[in-house]
Amino acid sequence: MRLDKFLAHTGYGTRKSVKELLKRKKVTVNELVIKDAKTHIQPETDTIHVSGERVVYQEFYYFMLHKPQGVISATEDNLHKTVIDLLKPEDRLSNPFPVGRLDKDTEGLLLLTNDGALAHDLLSPRKEVDKCYEAIIEGLIGEEEIEAFEKSITLEDGFRCRPAKLTVLSTDLVAQTANIQVIIHEGKFHQVKRMFEAVDRKVQYLKRLSMGPLELDNSLKLGHYRALTIDELVQLKDFTK
Questions:
Q1: Strand 107-113 and strand 202-211: pairing?
Q2: What three-state secondary structure class fits 6?
Q3: What pTM, to 2 d.p., does this model score?
Q4: What average pLDDT does the segment 4-22 reach?
Q5: How many C-beta neighbours within 10 Å does residue 116 have?
Q6: 160, CA 20 to 30 Å: which among 177, 189, 191, 219?
């Protein structure tokens, strides 16, 4: 890897900023001062210092985001704010991307990473990754709807969903709404909303609580994020083996 790219990816600013560091003789590789930005290094084995501080190489980054409404699950968009726009500049340097998607008006857990292999495994249909959502539904939910979800909902385009677990958490008889939790195993476009439409109900509010073994940190405020803990990452990797 080129030295300027390595330093840019490890949080030392743009390549222009990195070149200034090199020009000022602030960078050493294996105790040798390096001024050429095009110098190739081996991040895993070479010892790099900037202003005397050891630079530790990290190839993959994993962030848990509490996605707010009004933000789209994409890396870039000309019209709308994206989940990447919520990250600090230094956390964008590794080129993370959302694993799957949440609709623009859906809140909740979203994993951002630059680990393509892990993302592929989490999104693979053969893994049947559970996704748990909480929602407020316009219209009451009874045994008929619960059984329909258990047997398998067929969407308007003919797609037959895997059996899903629908649980009623509370009911508001005055407002004629139900607070529910649902666990699905796919990630089709607007899937939860379309599943409820198939039983003549409408989703008013939707929030994802978990994806596989990864659960939303309740202390994370809307729009905030943090790096995954070691335990969370181990659980994810064990899950996708």
A1: parallel
A2: helix
A3: 0.83
A4: 86
A5: 11
A6: 177
Mapped onto helix, strand or coil, the DSSP state of residue 168 is strand
In whole angstroms, what is the distance from residue 94 CA to residue 120 CA?
A: 18
pLDDT digit string (tens) for 197-211?
999 999 999 999 999
Q: Is 231 a catalytic residue?
A: no
Q: Output the CA torsion sign for 126, 196, 191, 240.
A: negative
The Cα–Cα gap between 146 and 188 comes to 20
d(CA 67, CA 212): 17
- How far is the first Cα of the chain from the last one, in angstroms, to the nearest whole number? 29
Catalytic entry in 103, 121, 130, 172 = 103
Beta-carbon contacts of 136 under 8 Å, excluding residues fewer than 6 positions away, are 177, 178, 179, 180, 203, 204, 205
pLDDT at residue number 97:
97
Radius of gyration of the chain (CA): 23
Contact in structure between 215 and 109 (CB atoms under 8 Å): yes
8 Å CB contact between 149 and 195? yes
Q: How many residues does the chain have?
A: 241
How far is 213 from 121, CA to CA, in rounded Å? 13
